[in-house]
Amino acid sequence: MLDLHSRLRRLTRPALLTRAARMGVDHYRRDWHLPRLLNRADTPCPADATMQLLMLEEELNTARRTRAAEYSFDRHIDVLIALMCEARTVQNTTCARAVS
């Protein structure tokens, strides 16, 4: 099984999805978006949130690729926005710990 950083590096999606998600990064509010996306009352730590978002995004991508009726482009973008922001937080935290 791949570690978190390896999974993030290997993640590739169509340019349209990626561009749309990048446009929403500046508007991401962790305390509001994460509980809604992960269907939780609390806000998990960045590493846990990233892992959960990766699993959710994988399900959405499978639905996209199989053209499932329940696939939601909007939800996929929301999850990608959160994934980009949480992954950035995890990477910055890891770097900060390595420097200390």
Quick tags:
single chain, 100 residues, 0% strand
Question: Could you characterize the architecture of this molecule?
Answer:
By secondary structure, this protein is mainly α. Helices cover 73% and strands 0% of the residues. The protein is built from 5 helices and no strands. It has helices at residues 4-10, 15-24, 30-38, 46-65, 73-99. Helix 2 crosses helix 5. The termini are far apart.
C-alpha termini separation: 29 Å
Could you say which overall geometry the principal axes of the C-alpha atoms support? Answer: globular
- Global Rg: 14 Å
Runs in which pLDDT lies below 50 for 5 or more consecutive residues are 95-100
Structural class: mainly alpha
Question: Strand count, sense and closure of the main sheet?
Answer: none
Helical content stands at over 70%
Mean pLDDT: 86
How many structural domains? 1
Q: Work out the helix count.
A: 5
Strand portion? under 5%
Number of strands: 0
SSE order, as H and E? HHHHH
